[in-house]
Amino acid sequence: MAQSLPPEPMKLSPHQEAMEEACKAGQVAELQKLFNEHDVKEGDDPIPYWHATPQGAPATDTLFAAAISHKQQSIVQYLRSVYPKLDFSIPTIIGALTATPDLDMLKLIYSYSPRIVNFGFDDHVTTFLSKACEGGPQNAPFVNFLLDHGAMADDFGSYTYQFGAELLPALQHDQPTHIIKKMIPRTSRLPFPIDVAISRKRVDILELLLNEEEKRGKRSRDGIYEQALLHHAHETEDKTVIALVERFVANFTAARNLQSTRATTESRRWWQFSARADSKGHTDGKDSSSASRTGAGKSWWPLSKVTPVPESADSHRKEAPPDSDSD
After folding, report:
1. Where is this region: Disordered (predicted)?
2. How do residues 171-207 score in pLDDT, each as one tens digit?
């Protein structure tokens, strides 16, 4: 659900500025009065910024952003009744929600548009979740709500999935351990987050990441990846970091060696089985050929024993009829 970055705000006319100020101040009655004066009615279609004019109300997202950024839930609820068709998955709304994160406001907007949690910008890098993570550990409740309601469902849509997607800004901006713990299983690639955890000496996070990487079992064949991690760990001069990475490398090396041994054993077994099968096939071939010849002999040899004996010539001679007496 990628969207463009928010446009530059257009200059508002005086009555539109008054509407915006009423939204910021939470003055529902004043906003209603201004709407009535400028023919804005409940059920109107939202006004996108490219259709906004100096007459009537300004772009709808401008009013919502003013109310959201100033935590005016009553104004948001009123605006929702006026513009029920508004799609909240737009950059201006996301910007307002993350500029001044408020969990109650997020819950309200989520009740109108649940899919907002998976919002992504057109750059395929920035998301609602990544911007929330950039707010630091004080944003943890906000981030936690996003994660619990479907954010980060699939990181393959992001150009950054190879680098750890939203897990990377979460680490870089010191999101707490319980947040990171939720994000790790949803992250397709862990090498970059592991590298960041080593650099920042986040021992608690590093252990979680290494355990997950070990569980996935994606070992490099030559061990270069593991040795690079070990080299980076030694550069930190942090004994705990080094110990964690050394244990990880040792486990990976042992698993790779075991896998190699099993592969060699299976290959040897296959070769031995193949050799036995070839030998048996060759022997069976000889036996079958011999049996075929023997069987053939049995099938025709007895016939020679019952060759019919030629009949004697006398058996073919007809008896002459007796001569009649002639008187």
Report:
1. 276-327
2. 999 999 999 999 999 998 999 999 999 999 999 999 9
> Minimal CA–CA distance to 99: which of 64, 134, 75, 57?
134
Measured distance between the N- and C-terminal CA atoms of the chain, rounded to whole angstroms: 139
User: Mind spelling out the 3-state secondary structure of 114-148?
Assistant: HHHHHCEECCCCCEHHHHHHCCCHHHHHHHHHHHH
- Contact (CB, 8 A) for 226 and 253: yes
CATH number at residue 37: 1.25.40
The answer to whether position 271 is within a domain reads yes
Backbone angles phi, psi at 174, to 5 degrees: 60, 40
Q: What is the pLDDT of residue 320?
A: 44
Phi then psi for 84, rounded to 5 degrees? -70, -15
For residue 229, which of 256, 278, 264, 191 has the smallest C-alpha distance?
191
Tell me, yes or no, whether 240 lies in a domain: yes
Q: How far is CA 227 from CA 234, 242, 249, in A?
A: 11, 12, 7
pTM: 0.74
Nearest by Cα to 215 from 207, 227, 225, 205: 207
Among 122, 138, 170, residue at a domain's last position: 122
Q: Is residue 148 part of a domain?
A: no
- For residue range 99-146, list pLDDT tens digits in order: 999 999 999 999 999 999 999 988 888 999 999 999 999 999 999 999
122, 150, 173 — which closes off a domain? 122
The pLDDT, as a whole number, for residue 109 is 98
Distance between CA atoms of residues 23 and 17, nearest Å: 10
Number of structural domains (the chain) is 2
The domain in which residue 99 lies consists of 1-122
Going by the DSSP 8-state scheme, the letter that residue 58 receives in this structure is -
Q: Could you tell me whether strands 2-3 and 120-121 are parallel, antiparallel, or unpaired per DSSP bridges?
A: parallel
306 within domain boundaries:
no
